[in-house]
Design goal:
It is built from three helices and ten strands; from the N terminus they run ααββββββββββα. It is mostly beta strands. The chain has one domain. Helices cover about 10% and strands about 45% of the residues. The two termini are about 45 Å apart. Strand 3 and strand 4 form a beta hairpin. It is elongated, with a radius of gyration of 23 Å.
Length: about 260
């Protein structure tokens, strides 16, 4: 089973379109109808306010999508706590491999997914998205080989009605690997966070979809290894905001063309 075989579920979303061109033409509420056109400072203030604002999109709870593990009693040695709608996946493991066992190193690999479909674009434009991906591994062990790694995949499609984010170009390659080859030894506590952002062009009526897949991998041989509570991965707002959400915003093509004409890159 591959990541592309995973269930392609998507939850509802709320994404408001802020048309800056229209916003700049709208006088303040307390202005009289006959008031003069807004001055430059007022226009600049409105623009700065618009640029600072993003829509927060909550993510459905991650679902386990793929699991690869050695045969035998070790199948239950890598455990995952029940997921919640907080953007996190929590893992633990207790592994032992006898020194007289013959063969290759033992390997576990597990993936979890979440996906959201956003409302239709009101006009041609571009969807921007951003979020932070983090991981923590609390390890202990003594073995010939005892390594743990985590990864994050992201897929985005312009219209969920015609294509899946799981089939998006580059989806099979991690957009980041927060922790790679962390060796289990006495009292290891490794952490890493990465900010991820991107954008995609939309046509009026397109309903974009975003999918995120988290992955954890263990490679182990000859000895013992533990992954303690507190280990896992999470997705949250960029800049260290609350977990369980990403940030999105829509910019109409008219606005982007205005920026281009004004030399704003």
């Amino acid at each position: 089973m591959t990541l592309l075989d995973s269930p392609r579920t998507a939850g509802p979303a709320v994404l408001s379109s802020r048309d800056l061109v229209a916003a700049l033409d709208t006088p303040p509420v307390d202005d009289a109808p006959a008031a003069a056109a807004p001055g430059f400072d007022e226009l600049r203030g409105r623009l700065q306010t618009w640029l600072r604002e993003w829509d927060t999109q909550r993510l459905p709870a991650f679902e386990q999508a793929r699991s690869v593990m050695p045969q035998g009693e070790r199948t239950s040695a890598f455990r995952t706590a029940a997921t919640r709608a907080d953007g996190a996946v929590r893992i633990t493991a207790s592994l032992y491999d006898a020194p007289n066992r013959q063969g290759d190193a033992l390997a576990w690999s597990r993936n979890w997914l979440t996906a959201v479909t956003l409302p239709a674009a009101p006009v041609d434009g571009r969807l921007f998205y951003r979020f932070r991906a983090g991981s923590r591994l609390v390890l202990d062990g003594r073995a010939e080989t005892a390594l743990a790694s985590t990864s994050v995949h992201v897929g985005v499609t312009a219209d969920a009605a015609t294509s899946s984010p799981f089939d998006a170009p580059g989806f099979g390659t991690p957009v980041c690997r927060p922790l790679v080859g962390v060796e289990a030894r006495e009292d290891v506590d490794a952490r890493a966070e990465h900010d991820i952002e991107g954008s995609i062009d939309l046509r009026a009526g397109d309903r974009p979809a975003i999918a995120i897949v988290l992955g954890a991998n263990l490679v182990f041989r000859d000895g013992w290894m533990r992954v303690h509570e507190g280990s896992g991965l999470w997705i949250g707002s960029a800049g260290g905001g609350p977990t369980g959400s990403i940030e999105v915003r829509f910019a109409p093509s008219a606005l982007l063309e205005l920026f281009d004409q004004a030399g704003i890159a």
